[in-house]
Amino acid sequence: MTTLLVGPFNRVEGDLEIRLDVQDGAVAAAHANSPLFRGFERMMLGKGPLDALTITPRICGICSISQSAAAALALADLAGVQPAPEGAKVAALLHMIENVSDHMTHFNLFFMPDYARAGYTGADWHGTVVNRFTAGQGSALRRAVEARAELMHVVGMLGGKWPHTLAIQPGGVTRTPTARDLIRIGATLQAFRRYLEAETFGGKLEDFAGLETVEQLEGWTGGDVALFLQVAAATGTGAMGRGTGRYLSFGAYPLPDGRVFRGGTWDNGTEAPVDFTAIAEDISHAWMLGSTAHPRVGETIPDEMLREDAYSWCKAPRLGGRTFETGALARQVVVGHPLARALAAEGGVRARVIGRLLEIALTQLEMERLLRDIHPEQRFMDQVTLPANGSGVGVVEAARGALGHWITVQDGAISSYQIIAPTTWNFSPRDGGGTPGPVEAALVGAPVTEGEDTPLSVQHIVRSFDPCMVCTVH
Amino acid sequence: MNILWLQSGGCGGCTMSLLCAEDPNVIDLLDGAGLEFLWHPSISEATGAEVRRILDAVITGAQKLDILCVEGSILRGPNGTGRYHMMAGTGRSMMEWVRELAPLASHVIAVGTCAAYGGVSSAGENLTDAVGLQYDGGHAGGLFPAKWRTKSGLPVINVAGCPTHPDWVTETLLLLKAGELSAADLDGYARPRFYADNLVHHACPKNEFYEYKASAEHLCEMGCMMEHLGCIGTQAVGDCNIRGWNGTGSCTRAGYPCINCTAPEFEEPGHGFTETPKFAGIPVGLPSDMPKAWFMALASLSKAATPKRLAENATADRITIPPTLRKPKP
């Protein structure tokens, strides 16, 4: 058996190191290490609760609005209020823009370029992929960063800038849009739709969103989606990296009449609501001191000695003692989209990537619908008075899945702030029972060619999760 | 010129912001200027062992390095080991890597306030002992001492901002490539003066409210946010309201205060970010270069002269009273 240390692992957000035990040409065991600790939960202690709105978005440059939205909801919960309905809609729109933007960044900049590698030279599809997706160069990447930057104008207008807006507040949003602003945003969304339909999907978004079976998916012939399907099948990578079939979503985009994508769990065919009391973070293999705890009472005390029997700064969240995979695929499986459900059992590289593409199409349709339902004559923010003592929780869906903030305030200052981010779930280390985290489990069996020091199969599988490592440990 | 980009103790948001560059897009922009990434964590193909070989080649001198960009602060803890941030796959701390690579680069750019001064990563108790490349908060001397100079003779160039504006980064790179960025083009905190010679206040759409001290009392109201809501755009450097963010945005345009994110120690204002500290009911902190007595005199005068339109609009969430139109000539 040989051991490989894979890192720096790039085209993921943040720092990642994977240790692989390789035997008989395949990964026998994987250990995921999140090697950066900054201590955001500790920074919050003693500060005024509203400071969470400034500090927590800066946990992550790619999920900034997700962090912002979770913090705002946690503060609203602390105050026992709901944001102004129109404010909630604008917050949801801002959040949708970020999530769609993250999905397209992942597909174009992070994930697809691996198929342009020299290792695939000679395959009949390789020339096309090199043209479209060579890292930092391909024609699809150039067009994608342009379309993304233009889409972000919506955040510029409503949120001032991206990342790290302070526009989302517990009572709503800080800027009241005018009818003119909304017309302008509509024009930006239409331009984005044109880009998606011309380049990514090569067809109508409604048609892709309407796919129901794997056979229908495999019959899709348009755009970069079809290119991905062809390549995933030809290389055999689409079937790699199968998960456990357990999916978690906290539910995305809270609006006055409920969440746009409802939350829940899916365990190989069995649906259930999320039991938030059953969440616990295990620290047996994390460089953390303390004990397994629910985030309401959890602590963050880094082990300065980096003890030998631990291997990551990431805690290991478990729901009812078990691992769950979270992300776009999980979200759409939980919602019950027929294509996502059809891919739930497959649960590998192809399923995760298609889950994200499906959600780009679905979310664009939701953004268009939501925009039509924003009423500029209404109030977009209510004044909120926070209690000096109390606690609150805010849960949202970041692009990468379930994100929760748990806050406790004493005498007007934060006494506890705990965060569980999506990749904390997906890239968690082993727990006390020795059960590996989702990516660790998904890597077992990945083929390793003789002489490979950074196995390509491992890269495809890891990137199919779209990890955000800066959120993971925070 | 080539660029090696490392992400240290930060959020990656300055890279994400960089990808928002427009006119032209960031890839065409850098290509067109003759700038290429030797390696970038979010963009390059090379991963794992391939990256380690690139870094080794720089260290042995087989690969020249023109520009080193560091994003994120340097985490020196625990106990000076740097082990709160080991560079994946290398068994060495990012602190050691930057210490070894920076002297080999012609230019070194600290991208963002974390890399420049410590930034948000150093907030609170600064558990990780985070520090900037050449500053520790507002004090000169960080990972590198105050008098240290890169091979080009310049100090670390601090493209501060949280996040940085994409143009601040690309224009700094383009100026370096053109050989048009000298020590005189940097301000007292080593920030490029092309954006740091402006104040966020310049072109702020709330300027008329500021002129009459017509203040917003709550976030989402139209008035000036200096008196009650913590805005320090009159002291913060940056051309945020001149060039616009993500199209035409800026913090104050979106209805929330400037928190001076281009400055050292902005992360610890000593009060809530969205509240203005006051002494005897009067805001502490003056607009840059404004004599206190004059400010007080002008403020009380202008406050007394505030037109009804501004007084009412200041505490409304939209314009309720439009400007009075001039009557046509008889």
Automatic annotation (TrEMBL), chain A:
The keyword Disulfide bond does not apply. Keywords: Iron, Magnesium, Metal-binding, Nickel, Oxidoreductase. Fe cation binds at C63, C471. The keyword Magnesium applies. One of its GO terms (cellular component) is cell envelope. GO terms for molecular function: ferredoxin hydrogenase activity; nickel cation binding. InterPro entries: Ni-dep_hyd_lsu (IPR001501), Ni-dep_hyd_lsu_Ni_BS (IPR018194), NiFe-Hase_large (IPR029014), NiFe/NiFeSe_hydrgnase_LSU (IPR050867). Mg(2+) binds at E41, I419, H474. Its cofactor is Ni(2+); Fe cation. SUPFAM superfamilies: HydB/Nqo4-like (SSF56762). Ni(2+) binds at C60, C63, C468. It is found in: Cell envelope. It comes from the Bacteria. Belongs to the [NiFe]/[NiFeSe] hydrogenase large subunit family. This is Nickel-dependent hydrogenase large subunit.
Automatic annotation (TrEMBL), chain B:
InterPro entries: Cytochrome-c3_hydrogenase_C (IPR027394), NADH_UbQ_OxRdtase-like_20kDa (IPR006137), NiFe-Hase_small_C_sf (IPR037148), NiFe_Hase_small_N_sf (IPR037024), NiFe_hydrogenase_ssu (IPR001821). It is found in: Cell envelope. Its EC number is 1.12.99.6. Residues 11-174 form the NADH:ubiquinone oxidoreductase-like 20kDa subunit domain. GO terms for biological process: anaerobic respiration. Keywords: 3Fe-4S, 4Fe-4S, Cell membrane, Iron, Iron-sulfur, Membrane, Metal-binding, Oxidoreductase, Signal. Its cofactor is [4Fe-4S] cluster; [3Fe-4S] cluster. [3Fe-4S] cluster binds at C240, C258, C261. Residues 198-270 form the Cytochrome-c3 hydrogenase C-terminal domain. [4Fe-4S] cluster 2 binds at H201, C204, C224, C231. Heterodimer of a large and a small subunit. This is hydrogenase (acceptor). It comes from Donghicola mangrovi.
